[in-house]
Amino acid sequence: MPNIEEFIGDIFSEIGEAPDLLLQYLHAIQHEYSHVPEEAIQLLSERLKTPPMKINAVIDFYSFLHRTARGEYDIRFSDNITDRMLGNQLLFKSLCKKLGVEPDVPRADGKVTVSLTSCTGICDQGPAMLVNGLVVSKLTEKRIHKMVGRIEAGIPVANWPKSLFVVKDNIRRKDKLLNDDIIKGSAIGALAATGGEVMLERLENSGLRGRGGAGFGSGLKWRLCRETEADKHYVVCNADEGEPGTFKDRVLLNSYADELFEGMTVAAGIVGAKKGLLYLRREYLYMREALEKTLQERREAKLLGKKILGHKGFNFDIEIHMGAGAYICGEESALIESLEGKRGIPRDRPPFPVTCGYKNKPTALNNVETFVAAAKIAVFGADWYHSVGTSQSSGTKLLSISGDCERPGIYEYPFGVTIRQILVDCGASDTQAVQVSGAAGSTIPPQEFYRKIAFEDVSSGGSFMIFNQQRDLLKMVLNFARFFTHESCGFCTPCRVGGRLLNDLVEKVMVGYATRYDLKEMERIGQVMKKTAHCGLGSTAPNPILDTLAKFPGIYATRLHNTSHTPAFDMTKALDVSRLLTGREDEGAYVERTDEY
Ligand SMILES: Cc1cc2nc3c(=O)[nH]c(=O)nc-3n(C[C@H](O)[C@H](O)[C@H](O)COP(=O)(O)O)c2cc1C
Ligand code: SF4
């Protein structure tokens, strides 16, 4: 292992020395030492003039950063509900048993740590895991068995068979966006030919709305950014894709990276940015090398860097910044905090990033799919785009389809497609519910399958998870409640406390101890969170509970306890000490409760 001081010196000379690069330093250090050692924290603190406490707070905020070593093999099992439906729990237990480890605890010989992690974006090829950042998909008992053999034999992950690490695009349906190819550089050429104002009008006329979920008009966003006076402007691409069940950006990053960077460059030309940043979720680390290669090829082709395509004064380049496993960093202001090397705590808004974003400068921040669409609109024009879709939702939408269907994968549809049509196309039958737009989205029952995917009807960031009649929907609700409890940044009380209370109440329903009063409490807490949470995470977290309470009351009613009130905690466990002290073992000293689910 290299000397830490020298190692940090090398990183500083390679990527520069600035507090906003803290997260990137921590990634590099962890990659080398499998954690961030105390000595490194002290050295960073001295060089960046930042208190060690602040650095520790950043490390502790992100799931993929650690102050204790995880060993030569760092394994994280994806734990989305779709992984669970494919049997990840048994495989997880089996791996832990074979390796002789407890979850989250490094093995005594320091060789390996196994943990669960939030959705890794491989739901169409699950169950999936990450081993030292590489994806192993379609896990089976046989794969686990062989993996254990390689770990025990000390074979480095780099020498494991390449076939283990294949992630397919799985594109099942293409429409305008994925079908109509553009020549590399043609969108930038179109911008140079028309000028920024005309290109901006083209985007506005296309009706393109943000594909990250909120659906804000992209043309308007870029106009506000362009018209905000400042010495610097920035373009940021949100490739955090943490919403459970979403993996369409994974495919765009893998196979449409040129179009993405082209779209970012067009945005830069319009808003006047010289620097762009791609915020890539840590789970997609395995794509970084290829993305850097594409960036380098574009620099060589004069599509990035100084004097783009020979145009004096058109200078723009893109850097990749890695996230570190925090869903909240998909929220735009938290993402900017993270880019600035801090914990991803959402900012007060307004001001919005478009006028006061990265380094408090006007920032055009968009989703991967939005930039890809913008590049194509720049070439083919506004009419090409809004010739499909609905009046309020022009163009197409990529859906990541997973769960109970024969053909999971990526489907591109014009907006306005019905949920029923999608279910037919992907081979779903006997469907009990569809969860559209991830854990924060809507739970759609069969009587609403006539509804359309569109901003004015069922809006979607891209996730489409299918549950058949055999599934216990409450398990989905519990999986999402746990997800939100884990991913809450903790800044505001409605989300930090409300999320935990909801989680506990769902568990109470699960074990058969909830009453009608508890259901009313869930409804009340959910509404409080919706109205008072500081950001979108807290205001959408109760959605699956509120939706299922209203549309699937049976999953709760069949489990209710027949009294009007039961305690929120396990009385029997709580009375353990009292029984010990009083020596009571009679029936009356126990309140029966089994918290197994
Ligand atoms: C908790 C939370 C997570 C989010 N995650 C993402 C994400 O992973 N990717 C994304 O593009 N937008 C995400 N968003 C939406 C962003 O805040 C923002 O609206 C979006 O990136 C803007 O790009 P667009 O206009 O192209 O959609 C998230 C929002 C919230 C509240
Ligand atoms: S709503 Fe949740 S995630 Fe958002 S600021 Fe509050 S605690 Fe953080």
List keywords for this structure.
single chain; 597 residues; alpha/beta; Glutaredoxin; Rossmann fold; six-stranded mixed beta sheet; four-stranded mixed beta sheet; 26 helices; binds flavin mononucleotide; binds iron/sulfur cluster
Topology:
Blueprint: H1 4-15, H2 22-33, H3 38-48, H4 52-61, E1 73-78, H5 81-85, H6 88-99, E2 112-117, E3 129-131, E4 134-136, H7 141-152, E5 171-173, H8 176-179, H9 186-194, H10 196-206, H11 218-227, E6 234-239, H12 248-255, H13 257-271, E7 275-280, H14 288-300, E8 317-322, H15 332-339, E9 363-367, H16 368-380, H17 382-386, E10 396-403, E11 409-414, H18 419-425, E12 431-436, E13 442-444, E14 463-468, H19 473-487, H20 493-510, H21 516-532, H22 536-540, H23 543-551, H24 554-557, H25 571-574, H26 576-582
Parallel strand pairs: 1-2, 5-11, 6-7, 6-9, 7-8, 10-14
Antiparallel strand pairs: 1-3, 3-4, 10-11, 12-13, 12-14
Helix pairs in contact: 6-7, 9-10, 9-16, 10-11, 13-16, 19-20, 20-21, 21-23
Bound molecules: flavin mononucleotide and iron/sulfur cluster.
